[in-house]
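I am going through a labmate's work and have reached the protein record below. What it holds is a sequence and that sequence's fold in token form. Please read both lines and tell me whether the tokens look consistent with the sequence. Do not assume that whoever made the record got everything right. Thanks in advance; the entry in question is below.
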Amino acid sequence: MKDDVFSKILLGDLPCKPIYEDEVCLAIENKFPKAEIHYLVIPKIFSKNFVDFLDKATLDYSAKFFQSVSHVAVNVLDLKDGFKIIMNNGISAGQTVMYFHVHIIFGNFLNQEVM
């Protein structure tokens, strides 16, 4: 792991508000939400972005991770009627933490900023 906020959260060095955890991920409340409902799902293997995640994760791990993302959205957050999933890949795409993660978003954006 690296010296970034998500690594520190996964190691227990920084507090967070977890809503779900399993063997492949940790889902937490976003400390700086951009929408009415905004959560993050973080894989437990370090990867700097989506492409790096796919290079490092096995096919089984990737499948389990994205099944967990779906479980969080549909079952934990009860967003059965719909939600947005956002993955920013790199600085030029708006990624601000260089650790791959998935945003689960629902409702109105809180400002005009596009993720």
Residues 59-76 form the longest helix (18 residues). The helical segments are 5-11, 50-56, 59-76. The chain has a mean pLDDT of 93. The chain has one domain: 5-109.
